[in-house]
Design a protein that fits this description.
There is one protein chain. This protein is α/β, with parallel strands linked by helices. It has two domains: 152 residues, Histidine kinase-like ATPase, C-terminal domain (Heat Shock Protein 90), CATH 3.30.565.10; 123 residues, Rossmann fold. 36% of the residues lie in helices and 22% in strands. It has ten helices and twelve strands. A five-stranded mixed sheet has the order 2-4-5-7-6, covered by helices on one side. A five-stranded parallel sheet has the order 9-8-10-11-12, with helices on both faces. Helix 1 packs across helix 2, helix 2 runs antiparallel to helix 5 and helix 7 runs parallel beside helix 8.
């Protein structure tokens, strides 16, 4: 509010930022919650921005949508482009309590929430949306809220200027990161929400683009869209695919075969390592994966390219 935030502006894939922020919020949500759907284009949506601050915007909007929706409701987060106006569009829509015209008129003002009895009962000082508006405007964007009235849900729409795609963005197979590149696309597949939260936080704070999945089959599908440089995958996964099967599937797919695969598991015997390497993993790491070990792993990948194993 005092204009003291300095943004670390880089070319950012808004789609990746949104996927990570939503996944992180859903993983840490307590108790029953609405269903959350994510709708994103198959390719990247490039903007000039600070990935950490943009994630903060997304997290706040999704958190509000979850807070003001009933457990059986639905929250939809969508990313799209408006080519005619050269804008990227993020919309967070919920089926929750909705808003009156008077609420909409003052929604982005500091402490506006305190004037609404219904909203005040859900907690919060009402600073979040004021901060969101400030961050969006620092990115040369705009944000608006819509609602058809109480009981009809709400929609928050953010628009940011589109940026040109990187030179190699259209390449069908992504090259290994250069030695001087300190940003990676990392996919974490683990059914333990604490592990997902910890690793995603550490990686995001390190400046990397992160996506998460709780099961093997959705993780493989996400990898096809996300095109990760690095995949951190648990072995004992629920659902139809375990970690070995995930590695085999990723190695067999031209879109993901060049990713570096690291098995993260509680089983550290020689036989476990052998099976992991045979399935296609580059490395076998025994849980817990500490911060220092994670940093070393990232550093080796950035330095040595395809020679991480």
């Amino acid at each position: 509010m005092r204009g003291k935030i300095t943004l670390d502006i880089q070319r950012v894939d808004l789609t990746a930022v949104v996927r990570q922020a939503v996944a992180d919020r859903v993983v840490t949500a307590e108790g029953n919650r609405p269903t959350v759907d994510i709708m994103t284009p198959s390719g990247e949506v490039w903007v000039e921005g600070d990935s950490v601050r943009l994630a903060q915007v997304v997290d706040n909007l999704v958190s509000n949508a979850l807070k003001f929706s009933e457990p059986q409701g639905r929250v939809t987060v969508s990313v799209s482009t408006e080519p005619d106006s050269r804008l990227a569009k993020l919309e967070v829509r919920d089926s929750g309590i909705g808003m009156t015209p008077s609420t909409l008129a003052t929604l982005f003002e500091p402490f506006a929430q305190a004037r609404e009895t219904l909203e005040r009962s859900c907690g919060g000082l009402g600073l979040g949306l004021a901060v969101v508006k400030g961050l969006v405007e620092l990115h040369r964007g705009r944000i608006e809220a819509r609602s058809d009235g109480p009981g009809h849900g709400s929609s928050f729409i953010m628009r940011l200027p589109l940026s040109s795609a990187p030179v190699d963005a259209s390449s069908p197979e992504r090259a290994a990161p250069e030695a001087n590149s300190d940003q990676l696309r990392v996919l974490v597949i683990d059914d333990n929400r604490d592990v997902l939260h910890l690793l995603s936080r550490l990686l995001t704070l390190g400046g990397h683009n992160v996506a998460v999945a709780k099961e093997g089959s959705p993780g493989v599908e996400l990898a096809r869209q996300f095109r990760p440089d690095l995949v951190l995958c648990d072995i004992g996964l629920p659902g139809e695919m375990n970690g070995y099967q995930v590695a085999s599937a990723l190695r067999a797919d031209p879109l993901t075969r060049n990713a570096h695969l690291v098995a993260i598991t509680g089983y550290g015997q020689a036989e476990d390592r052998r099976r992991a390497l045979e399935a296609g993993f580059d490395r076998h790491v025994t849980k817990p994966l500490g911060h220092a070990e994670l940093l070393n792993l990232i550093g080796e990948l950035a330095k040595d390219g395809n020679q991480v194993a």
